């Protein structure tokens, strides 16, 4: 069983069923990743468009955008987490595969190969949907250049923090708090990182398809994605550094 899947409620503690419930089919999990990522990007892009139409104050625009993202992401994790783990993010999927690669019930290459394309397609669809809802051109490449070095550093920090949070919660058996914790972290990272915390390669690709408040120029996408992958590796290293003692303690306590 994968670390994120362990967040699903376990009613077996109250009453052990005679037969183990069937696992969620891959097609359902992939659909959840596609729909969830599409909805997430629609929230991010749509709220950005709405904010710019309601106010000329950039601070208020970012506040509205971040609040909508916090609420939307929390709801999506709560709704779809029991189905797919609510990754919505290739970095999280890859990290989940890596940490569970020795677990027969962990996320396998087949699931990774299905999750990541679904996330990317969903992100693009979400951006197009948001543009359609607000009467924007359905596909218009963003002209928002985000290639400055300090923005790239912001993406490393944002993604490393996200991975540390998710897998730290898994290590401490607190994944039931993921909807609130992850949404709160992303909301905070909107403000404390220079890049406004994309922290997600699929969302980054999707946001290149809209020339609105939340967009990113296609030329800036490779740099952002590269830094997000580096941030993911850094996050996993931090998880091992901070929470590695839990695995050693568990192993030491195991019966011979």
UniProtKB/TrEMBL annotation:
Superkingdom of source: Bacteria
Topology of this chain in the membrane: Multi-pass membrane protein
A Pfam family matched in the record: MIP
Entry GO terms, CC: plasma membrane
Transmembrane segments: 30-50, 62-81, 112-130, 151-170, 223-243
InterPro entries: Aquaporin-like, Aquaporin_transptr, MIP
Keyword ATP-binding: no
Molecular function terms from GO: water channel activity
UniProt keyword annotation of Membrane present: yes
Localisation: Membrane
Keywords: Membrane, Transmembrane, Transmembrane helix, Transport
Family statement: Belongs to the MIP/aquaporin (TC 1.A.8) family.
Protein name, entry field: MIP family protein
Species this chain originates from: Kitasatospora indigofera
